[in-house]
Description:
The protein is an all-alpha fold and 109 residues long. The protein has four helices and no strands. It is globular and about 55 Å long. It starts with a helix and ends with a helix.
Amino acid sequence: MNQYTKQFKKMAKRIMILAYSRELSLSDITKYTKEPLKYAYLDQQQRMEDAYLHGDIVDSIEFYNMQANLYQSYLEQLHLDPQIVFLSFLRYQNKKQISIQKRLSRLTK
Length: 109
């Protein structure tokens, strides 16, 4: 996975967390995240094209493969089942809560 796809996935995860932190219904999640995901995708695509034009990516086949990977990740995010995303969000919250509990237990020792 290339750096642009990784950055997009990182941003997509943040967008989803924000959507759930607003406590929207599952049907609203798709509606709320569609535009931010599009702009996160376009941002990374533009960065990739800039790198190609500046010579950081020299092989055109590599460039097109990188674009395809980025686009595939974008489509996957658009068509995620809200239930799967919700479960992922719950796991994220649980990890965060466990981390806070560990810090508190270290402070009380």
